[in-house]
Amino acid sequence: MTVNVLEQLIYNQRYNNLLVGLFKLSHNMDITLGYIDLLANEKYI
Measured at the alpha carbon of residue 20, what is the angle toward residues 19 and 21, in degrees to the nearest 5? Predict the structure, then answer.
């Protein structure tokens, strides 16, 4: 019983890490795309 609980906790932790990683990645992509937009706008001004 305890082994299953432990496995579940480990699985949940990995899943949380994956979600956090994806969130950080998407956040960084937003910043990068925003910066690219800024540079593109400056070129056309």
Answer: 90
The position carrying tokens 């540079």 is 39
* 45 residues of the chain, pLDDT tens digit each: 688 999 999 999 999 999 999 999 999 999 999 999 988 888 765
Query: Which contiguous run of DSSP H or E holds residue 31?
Result: helix 2-44
pTM of the model: 0.57
Q: What are phi and psi of 14, to 5 degrees?
A: -65, -40
Evaluated on CA atoms 9, 14, 17, 22, the torsion sign reads negative
CB atoms within 10 A of CB 18: 10
- Tell me the residue type at 40: A
